[in-house]
Amino acid sequence: SAGLMALAIGGIGLETGFCQVKPLISDVFTADPSAHVFNGKIYIYPSHDIEANVPQDDEGGHFNMRDYHVYSMDAIGGKVTDHGVALDLKDIPWAGRQLWAPDAAFKNGTYYLYFPVKDKEDVFRIGVATSQSPAGPFKAEPKPIPGSYSIDPAVFTDTDGQGYMYFGGIWGGQLQRWHSGKYDKSLSTDLGKGHEREPALSAKVAKMSGDMLSFAEAPRDVQILDEHGKPLLGGDHDRRFFEGAWLHKYNGKYYFSYSTGDTHLLCYAESNSPYGPFTYKGVIMKPVEGWTTHHSIIEFKGKWYIFYHDTEISGKTHLRNVKVRELVRSADGKIQTITP
Ligand code: FUB
Fold this sequence. Notes:
This is Glycosyl hydrolases family 43. The protein is an all-beta fold and 340 residues long.
């Protein structure tokens, strides 16, 4: 019916009732889009999914990515430019395999690309590479960031110029293996049975050093509290942190958003400090097609947008495509839940 017809305008479809959103990139597979506004343009730093013919396993071995491309757009709904290979696995001296979800930052004339990759012992670490251009190419530092581990770095620059890295992901992202402070390979999913009534594993946050190449402090827990001020529990799969952290600031408050992994939700929590504790507020997006769900949030020309992915083009969980749509808030600041 006419009421269900969607009007698609260069990637975003608008109409009442539902919203048809087209993939932003369709010649290659892209996922985990971290978007930033640099020099008045939108730059997207996604994972570059490929068919590597690695069988699916619980550790995410089938996500066997080997390089990154950077994309830019002058406007939402405008042309998307592919700037080519920004960083290749073979040019990261310490890397073994699996270039997962990256992020980028800018400080004092230099652009930074942060990326998780397994080292030669198959342990995820977070690396950093630099460029004079937001589009790259980026040159990797010779070693991972000291004290880094797990996946999904998201670097937030506060209004005072201070950078913070949020990171971590459980199960294939290995965060649970660091629970005791040392790497324990026997912990393969979360902390497992018997831990459901204990506080959930937390994402980590660390202040960045002035040169953005290292942590200025030991990573701390990003605590998420429920409406009674109690930490979310490990068994609370609809609300607890799994992976894919993002941080944005709106009206002076800090919004920490993330994926719940096995329940496939994007949720958010709010705080008056970039360190938290954050109070759980609700669901930003209900499950998309595909197992993983990963997003970023930016403001561009007075509107807020969420970048995310699904598997519309391939129908396969490890071959994803990025999308964008508007993020809408109610008058009280609450983020409206999106049903994709
Ligand atoms: O793309 C590989 C991994 O899948 C990411 O690091 C996670 O956030 C999930 O999207």
